[in-house]
Write a structure and sequence with these properties.
Blueprint (H helix, E strand, L loop, with lengths): L2 H11 L4 H25 L13 H6 L10 E8 L5 E3 L7 E3 L1 H14 L3 E7 L19 H12 L4 E6 L21 H18 L3 E4 L6 H11 L7 E8 L6 H7 L18 H13 L4 E5 L5 H10 L5 E4 L2 H12 L5 H15 L3 E3 L3 H7 L3
Length: about 375
Amino acid sequence: MSFSSLVSDIAYRNPTRPELRAAASEAGRSYASTAATSVSISGDIKSQLHGGYSHPLARAWQAERQLTKSMLIYPLFISDQPDEETLIPSLPNQHRRGLNKIVPYLKPLVEKGLKSVILFGVPIAPNAKDALGSNADDPKGPVIKAIRLLRRTFPDLFITADVCLCEYTSHGHCGILRDDGSLNNQLSVERISDVAISYAMAGAHCVAPSDMNDGRIRAIKLKLIEAGIAHQVVLMSYSAKFSGCLYGPFRDAAGSCPSFGDRRCYQLPPGGRGLARRAITRDINEGADIIMVKPASQYLDIISDAKDIGKDMPVAAYQVSGEYAMIHAAAAAGVFDLRAMAEEATQGILRAGATIIVSYFTPEFLDWLSN
C-alpha cells in the first residue's frame, strides 16, 4: 500500500477523530509537494529558468553584451550655411546645422558622455554641386571645416567622416557616371579615395566610404599607407549596404535624392544574403578595420553573418533614418512607448552581433544610460 493510500485509510477508519483527519490532510499536502518535486527532479532540471531572470539586474546579466555610451555613433548633418539650424520634418528631433550652431549643440551631449559622431556634409549654396562632386573635399567645405573645428573644441571626441559623393553631385548618385548613366567604377573609386584621404588629412579619426563601389576599400587603404597615416586612421566600410525604402528621411536631410533612376545597381538587393557575405569578406581582405551593415533591424541575419565572418573585428550597424522615423511614428500613434521600443530594437542589434551602433537615438540614450 502507498503512503497516501495508508493515510486515507486511517482517516476513513477513524471518522470521529478530527486530529487524524487534520494529519491526513497535512500528510496529503506534503506528499503532493514531494511528488511534484520528484517529478521535476526526475525530469530535466535545466528546464527551470525563471529564477535566473526574476530580478531586473538578473535579467540584465542574461544579455551577451550591454549597450554602453562608447558603442554609439551620432550622425550629424553639417550645412555649408554657418548659421543654419533647420529641423528635418521627416526625421524627428534632427536638424541640419551650420558650423556656428554645431558646437553649442554638441557641448551638453559631450558632457553627458557622447564619444563619437559621423559627419555628413550638406551643400546648399548655389552651384555647390556638379557631376564630379568637386566640393566633397573642398577645404572650405562643411565636412573638412567641421572636422577641424571639432578636433579643436572636443579633443576626446572620435570623429568619423562619411565618404560619398551623393550629397555633392548634381545627379545625386554615389560616384562618377558614364554617358549611359551607369557608374564608372574606376573613376568613382579614384575620386572617393581622394576624398577619404582629404578627410583623414584634415583630422578625421575614421573614414567610412558608403558608396559601395567595388575596390574602394583597397584604394583608400593604399592611399592611407602612401600618405603615411594608415596607422592613425580607422577605415570603416559600409560593407553590406542594402537598397530599399528606409533612406527617405536621410535623403531629405542631406539633399541626396538621385535626379534619375535609383541605387539598386550598386547597393545590395534586400534578398542578397550571399552577396552581402561576399562583400564583407572582400572588404576585410582589402583592409577594412570595421565592417558595417546598413540598415540594421531588418538585416539582423546579416549582422550575425558579419560577426561570424569577421570574428576578430568590430561590427557596426546603422539604424537608418527610416527605422528611426518608424519608431517615432508608431510611438506617436500610441502603439508602444518610445523608449521601450528604442531599447528593444537596439538590444536586437546587439544580440545579432554588432558592437557599434550608428543611431539617431544617441542623445536620448545618453540620458537613458545615465539613469
